[in-house]
Protein: Stage 0 sporulation protein A homolog
Amino acid sequence: MADDDKNICNILKSQLQSENYKTEEFLNGQDLLNRFKEKPCELIITDIMMPNMSGYELCRAIRDISNVPIIMISAKDEEIDKILGLELGSDDYISKPFSLREVTIKARNMLRRANNHSFNTDNTDEKLILKDLEIIKSRRAILIHGQELKVTTKEYELLELLIENKNKPFSRESIIEKVWGYDYYGDTRQVDHLIKRLRKKMLLEGSECKIETLWGYGYKVSD
Structure:
């Protein structure tokens, strides 16, 4: 965790350690990044405004080397903060002042889903294929024209959900539940920005597979 407010670090540390998670706290993004390069972790929670290296810069640097889940904490409940964080590759965001229960739920679900994928040996050789896009479940890999597409954890899980259920429409709320794994909190913008990131990556690779928007409802892919 990184936050230049030591009190917030201590509050988060106390809450997460009470849930039996091991934590390390840093007062800026650069120190967290240096530590991550020495010893990767399973989840990053970072503030946005910090000295030496902001949460945005940290997110960009982490995404260059890892797909570890990232939760960003925004001091202001402003859409632009959240949009930029999501577009840089964060998986979720929390607005200050925040609920410790919300932090716990989001952290717990992200870690549980990551661990379930790590140890799940079912469908080892299963592949999902739609047009020029192929998903290899055992590797959690997405291929377009045989070339692997670099994606974050949430990007992979969302595309796997849509491809595995092709032609089935999903509401934003149901995507939140299935991909993020927690009860709907009333804000589904992270779904839209995750879709935007995926579409951009797929477009750059010239994929024939398209994610369709169902206006006022959600998304689907069609064969």
Helices lie at 6-18, 29-38, 55-63, 79-87, 100-119, 153-164, 172-180, 189-204. The beta strands are 44-47, 70-74, 92-95, 127-130, 133-136, 141-144, 147-149, 170-171, 211-214, 218-221.
